[in-house]
Amino acid sequence: MWLADTSIKRPVFATMVILGLVVLGIVSYPLIGVDLFPKVDFPMINISTTLKGASPEIMDIDVADKIEEAVNTINGVKTIASTSTEGISATLVEFTLERDIDIALQDVREKIASVRSKLPNDIDEPVIEKVDPDAAPVMWLGLTGEKSVSVRDLSTYADEVLKEQLQKINGVGAIRLAGLRLRQARIWLDAERLKAYQITPQDIITALRKENVELPGGRIEGSTKEYSIKIEGEFPRIADFNDLIVSYHRGMPVRLSDIGRAEDGMAEKRSISRFNGISSVGLGVRRFLLE
Hints:
alpha+beta; Alpha-Beta Plaits; 8 helices; 3 domains; about 30% strand; Multidrug efflux transporter AcrB TolC docking domain, DN and DC subdomains
């Protein structure tokens, strides 16, 4: 009633107040920040662990269960959900809204560190991070070419040229690539020849790690100059892998060409990207975030 009485008894005052609010709104309107993707901190933390070659059952029993037991004692935990697949285990921990997610992240890291010795020795270090919706790309681009252009050429152009150019654009934070198949040296082995020469794939891996490597060779010091020496031990051509001595059998060297072959190929197909049904390389654009 006070507002109605004031407006009736003092109409000029009420009119000026309303006009003042209108002017203030007009002046403030251009300054209002608008964001289609506002920054929001979800009270959730994701724990990813990797163990190559492990079955889903092993990941569930030896990894996921121990992680769940550790983080379940943290204050403010609302729900815990785990997903175990071949070689990968993902645990999603949801906290209450009142819990500071940054402090909760530190608590989770401390708990995982305390049970690290109970996890398998060959497991990669668990990746602990907040669930960030801003990590998802805000735009996807599809890179295609003529039929004569291979997926490897598209992947090389996207990774070495187009990605760098897009990252220079104002507002672009990072570029995520999908359907990428870069050039890779692939080695194909013959199981019967391996058995005949009594060689295992691990022997070949060991030989590659020892021979195909670049090492620092020290330095040469002069009176006025200093030179760094580098031992170039990497194979310059794919065909040179075939001459690699992987083992000895009855006193004779066994080369890679005796038990298999090296191929100038592409990386394994771990993701697929298509544009209008045509194989392509996808480029996901993530925006630049200001803290």
